[in-house]
Design a protein that fits this description.
single chain; 80 residues; mainly alpha; two-stranded parallel sheet; 2 helices; 5% strand
Length: 80
């Protein structure tokens, strides 16, 4: 999920993050375990919404959708 994104690259990232679903069931007991678990969870959220947003805006640049679209001029909020 780098600076220049494509649907194919984001799908690959989502696949990578979903392979770590087993981490959700593990009790994070060390600081390092919590950091890894949180980093993977945040990465998955970023990839999910980056593939959903079919435009380029600010630091979110989609090579396959280079234009900014007015209907995407909003915040995307995720609630757990």
């Amino acid at each position: 999920v780098g600076a220049v994104r494509t649907e194919q690259g984001l799908a690959k990232a989502l696949s990578f993050f979903s392979s770590y679903d087993w981490l959700k069931d593990i009790q994070a007991t060390s600081l390092r375990a919590m950091e890894v678990k949180n980093s993977l969870e945040v990465g998955a959220l970023i990839a999910h919404f980056a593939i959903t947003r079919t435009e380029s805006r600010g630091s979110h640049y989609r090579l396959d959708y280079p234009q900014s679209l007015e209907h995407w001029r909003k915040h995307v909020i995720l609630k757990k």
